[in-house]
Amino acid sequence: QDYTWEDHGYSLINRLYPEVGQLLDEKFQVVYNLTYHTMATLRGVDTSVLRRAIWNYVHCVFGIRYDDYDYGEVNQLLERSLKVYIKTVACYPEKTTKRTYTQFWRHFKHSEKVHVNLLLLEARMQAALLYALRAVTRYMT
Q: Rounded to whole angstroms, how far apart are CA atoms 140 and 72?
């Protein structure tokens, strides 16, 4: 069964600790929606599809998949070096080096690469919370 932040995690954490639920949700939304509408040298770009692909790829790495998402987007939008970087930072942060950082998106701005880091770390946090909150839900029922 799907156990999503929007449908299950948020409501449970809100019941257990109301202030934290709202703060976490706002934090996830701010990072998820953050954009300068640029990609490398291009301006006026809608990056929402790319941001969604990064978020869902991080969740996928942790075993969370959504039936209503086309994972073909991940393979179309995320080049191999970016996937390697995301997996390294999300799963083995201690192995992250400057070299791994410089290997992906070589022509992109530093701020765009930092945004990738923000996205993947928040998605990782949400994935961990989903596992923990699902365990709490099972315990309570």
A: 36
What pLDDT does 89 receive?
95
Q: Where are the domains of the chain?
A: 8-140
- Beta-strand ranges (E) seen in the chain are 38-39, 42-43
User: In 3D, which of 107, 106, 66 has the Cα closest to residue 85?
Assistant: 106
Q: What are phi and psi of 43, to 5 degrees?
A: -120, 160
Q: How many C-beta neighbours within 10 Å does residue 133 have? A: 19
Strand pairing partners for 43?
Answer: 38
Q: Which amino acid is at 67?
A: D
The owner of tokens 């930072």 is 89
pTM: predicted TM-score of the whole model, two decimal places: 0.92
